[in-house]
Amino acid sequence: MEPIELRVRPAGASDLPVALQILTQAAEWEASRGMVSPWPVPFPEDRVRPSLERGELFLAEGADGQSIATVTLQWEDPPFWGERPPDAGYIHRLAVRREFGGRGAGYAILRWAEDQVRAKGRQWLRLDTLTARERLHEYYQDFGFLPVGRLTVRGLDVTLFEKRVPASAEGGEAPSGAHGGATPSVRGPK
After folding, report:
1. Which of 80, 100, 106, 185 is the most exposed place for a label (fewest CB within 10 A)?
2. How far apart are the first and last CA of the chain?
3. CA angle 18, 9, 3 (to 5 degrees)
4. What digits encode the pLDDT tens for the residues 118-141?
């Protein structure tokens, strides 16, 4: 499959149904494969709307303007990471439409998030995922994230991951076979 060109933009109020559709599709896909998932079907609006209202919800679009993925990028995350100095960005609810899976969209969005963190003068990109999701752990570790802890939040056993974001885009290494991304357009691996 050909790698995908993405443009990541802030979601507006009219984009909420699209983001919910992408998240629901991801949750359905996980359930159909018997994966452990904290995401209900359908994905509830009340779990996404606050991120939209705070300007933390984003959509990734292809060159044709079609929404391919959604992600939430927060600048603090006390429920999972506690009170911290303003040194990181926090990824939540990264989901890619299944028909675009395997074409580098997830890594392209993570590179975009690194660019946002760098632009804010912060040094870390952090996320959490269920401890039982070992393949997802490998995915994030292949991108350069390191596991730094485990905890239980809202009854979920999660592993915390972080990645140092170099001060310049040239300062870090992209995953094997990946191209460096630039905002606003980013490219997945070939």
Report:
1. 185
2. 8
3. 85
4. 999 999 999 999 999 999 999 999
| Cut 0.85: pTM above it | yes
Q: H helices within the chain, ranges in order?
A: 16-32, 49-53, 78-81, 105-119, 134-142
Q: Is residue 4 within 8 Å of residue 60, measured between CB atoms?
A: no
Q: What is residue 142's predicted lDDT score, i.e. its pLDDT?
A: 97
The Cα 157–Cα 58 span in angstroms is 26
In 3D, which of 115, 22, 29, 24 has the Cα closest to residue 73? Answer: 115
pLDDT of residue 187: 35
pLDDT at 131: 95
Q: Greatest CA span in the chain, whole angstroms?
A: 42
Question: Residue 164 is inside which H or E element, if any?
Answer: strand 156-164
Determine which helix (DSSP H) or strand (DSSP E) holds 90, and give its type and residue range.
Answer: strand 88-96
- How far apart, in Å, are the Cα atoms of 18 and each of 69, 95, 104? 9, 12, 20
Block mean pLDDT (10 aa), the chain, length 190:
85 98 95 87 96 98 95 97 96 96 94 97 97 95 98 94 90 39 34
Residue with the two structure tokens 């979920």? 156
d(CA 133, CA 120): 30
Domains assigned to the chain: 5-126+174-187 (3.40.630.30)
